[in-house]
Write a structure and sequence with these properties.
By secondary structure, the protein is an alpha+beta fold. It contains three helices and seven strands, in the order αββαββββαβ. The N terminus is likely disordered.
């Protein structure tokens, strides 16, 4: 009986711990995407170390239409992403060191373990709510403006 009570306590604490991650927010900076239709600004959380990049948007239940998360690596690397423990469908923009979008994975599937990659070295991946890319006409070749990118 004591073992069952202990297991229930662990399950409750684990559930509470995972749910509490939903409110963890990273520092926010403005990132602007320059498209053929004009500039669009996003309030963007910065995931810049192994811990924040590993957690990303996991456990989040919602995100605003002009909110984003930017994963940054220096130097550029071949990045592989997935949707493990991610409840929100996202559009993923893979970005080179000069801020150029080189690949977009729209409408990712929540909780999928499928690997998503640009197939080449990138400096960043920007995640926005699914449908944003189509709604704003964002496409490969568009540019992100932020201090992380050369010439920004």
């Amino acid at each position: 009986m004591l073992a069952i009570a202990g297991a229930v306590c662990v399950a409750i604490l684990t559930t509470f711990s995972l749910a509490s991650q939903d409110v963890v927010r990273l520092p926010v900076e403005q990132v602007i995407i320059t498209t053929d239709h004009g500039d669009v600004a996003f309030a963007t959380e910065m995931a810049t170390n192994d811990e924040t990049r590993a957690r990303g948007l996991m456990f989040r239940r919602s995100m605003g239409e002009r909110e984003a998360m930017l994963f940054h690596w220096q130097p550029p690397i071949k990045v592989s992403m997935w949707m493990r423990n991610t409840y929100i469908s996202l559009d993923m923009l893979f970005v080179t060191s000069d801020g150029t979008v080189v690949y977009i994975q729209p409408n990712t599937v929540p909780h999928s373990l499928d690997v998503i990659s640009a197939g080449r070295d990138v400096s960043a991946v920007m995640e926005v709510v699914a449908g944003t890319v189509a709604k704003l006409g964002i496409k490969p070749g568009d540019r992100l403006r932020h201090r992380f990118f050369d010439g920004s």
